[in-house]
Amino acid sequence: MKHEGGEFAASSGLRVRVRSERCQGHARCVAHAPELFELDELGYSHEIGAGVVALGLEGKARLAKANCPEFAIEIIEEGASR
Amino acid sequence: MSDRPPVTDWARDFDPFEQRWLDDPYTIWNELRERCPVAHTDRCRGVYLPTRYQDIRDVAYDPEHFSSRRLSVGDEELPLISSPPVTSDPPDHRAHRQLLLPAFTPAEIKKLEPRTRGICRELLDGLAGKRLIDGAADFAQEVPVRVIASMLGVPEADGALFRQWIHRFHQHANDVPGSLAVIDEMTAYFAPFITQRRSMPGDDLISFLTKAKIDGKPLTDEHVDGTLRLLLVAGIDTTWSMIGTCLWHLALHEEDRRRLAAEPALIPTAVEELLRAYAPATLSREILEDTEIGGCPVKAGQMVMLAFGAANRDPAMFPEPDRVIIDRAENRHATFGLGIHRCLGSHLARMELNVALEEWMKTFPAFTLAPGAELAWSAGIVRGPRQVPLVMG
To answer: pTM for this one?
Structure first.
């Protein structure tokens, strides 16, 4: 599934990833960054598409990570690829 | 509880039923974290108390050594009472929990928001014009009782009965026969509903459970009853305690109250901070095998209290942990637990808290604690104010 933001908007050079073995469904990431995360039917989170963080969403990505009680979110720096 | 010998050393002989603990556990926990981060007591048949975030987290993440089959501590031993999934351990836990998860996702809970708002409006309209209000009895206790009744598909009018059960659980927090009597009454209450929904299912949670299967087999009546008792108690007591605590905090902190009245968009962030500062639930674990917590050896057969409120005030994890900063942006609090037992109802609780505070602040933006009011806090698994006497305006 491709997210239009990730596909077409300029990338910040960051990518988010949910370590699904750690996720317990607190859903704080979705509360802070609904553009970057979504929940499955049981309420577990995953990144949308490839997890590409569009320019301007870096702050939300960091908040999502900083508010995850299970430390399940990674932010990967890939270098700007515009 | 008045004949209990007073505590002189909280590190070696703490007592979770002593008045000082009930009034202000935070000061005790903070002091222990500095001095003896894994405290112990021979009271309550032997209990350990970790107060550092990391140690509490480690225990929550280790269900092999720390079983959930007993969740509370007390002077006498409670028989094992199954309330899946909260009392389930691996490997059964996964299936017990998985079947309930779809009913408690944020998207499902969102559907209950209009009814919750309606309940809050009815209650607040009924309080209009009053000068003295008990924020606990007149509002906080009513909201989750009615919401859970509508979710389970039992009459909202039975709410008075549910409240009476919860009050008796508080009263008998350290009294086994008293607690068992309430559990028996709850089982007797649910039995006809379970029978009836097995033959004529609706779209409520009781029907959902009677239709659910594990490994192709329907749940036993005992399993359904255990889960229903859990949903009722956990869904009411925690949330009402937290709504009451929010009102109590705002009544005492004028600057926070004014800010929320002026900036209702800040309520969800403030709710997270109030959840962090005043986590209502302390669940316990039974130690199955000798092991250690934070380097401290612990013995099989004894209990460990998981004081999530202590984890939330660890300065190693939260800057200025004793200050309530209602716009705290980074807040990975442990109030809903950590690991496989993350509170199933966390999204329900958040929705109720946010809606209740939004509607309350819209109706009553100005209120203070009644002069001379003395607050009594409940003992046991859930800590909350039994009354919140408020003067409006």
So the answer is: 0.95
ipTM reported for the complex, 2 dp: 0.94
Mean pLDDT per 10-residue segment, chain B (393 residues): 85 96 97 98 98 98 98 92 95 96 97 97 97 96 94 94 91 90 96 97 96 96 95 93 98 98 98 98 98 98 98 98 98 98 98 98 97 90 95 94
DSSP state of B45: G
d(CA B113, CA B119): 10
Contacts of A28 in chain B (CB under 8 A): 332
Task: Give the one of B102, B334, B347 whose C-beta lies nearest to A69's C-beta.
Answer: B334
* Residue to test with chain A: of B98, B272, B332, B344, most A Cβ within 10 A: B332
Q: Which of residues 342-371 of B touch A (CB under 8 A)?
A: 342, 346-347
Q: What is the DSSP string of B102-158?
A: GGGSHHHHHTTHHHHHHHHHHHHHHHTT-SEEEIIIIIITHHHHHHHHHHHTS-GGG
Give B178 to chain A, closest Cα distance, Å. 34
Is B106 in Cβ contact with A67 (below 8 Å)? no
Q: How far is CA B112 from the centre of its chain?
A: 20
For chain A, say whether B301 makes contact (Cβ under 8 Å).
Answer: no
